Amino acid sequence: MEKLGREKKFFIFAIFAFLYILILTFLFERRGLLDVLNSRKELLNLKREVEILKKDKERLEWEVRILKDNPKSIEDTARRELGFIYPDEIVVILDEKAMQK
Question: Which residues, including other chains, have CB under 8 Å from residue 67's CB and lie 6 or more apart?
């Protein structure tokens, strides 16, 4: 009778050990559950980045069209972004912090 109890306990222990190993393998093995979840998260991040880059590309294409079609816009951009001035112009730079005080 006692032998039957030991065999039953050993059998239950063996099943739990097998399940434990199976779960660990499923979770941490290459292409396991954690790897799949991390891959999905990375895919979502990459999709967001692609959307941001698409919007940026559209904005740049619009800016290129404006610059090609309107020579005045080239001058405005050069003056605003590069600080270009005409020889007879005087540039006044105001300090915003000093203006607020």
Answer: 73, 74, 77
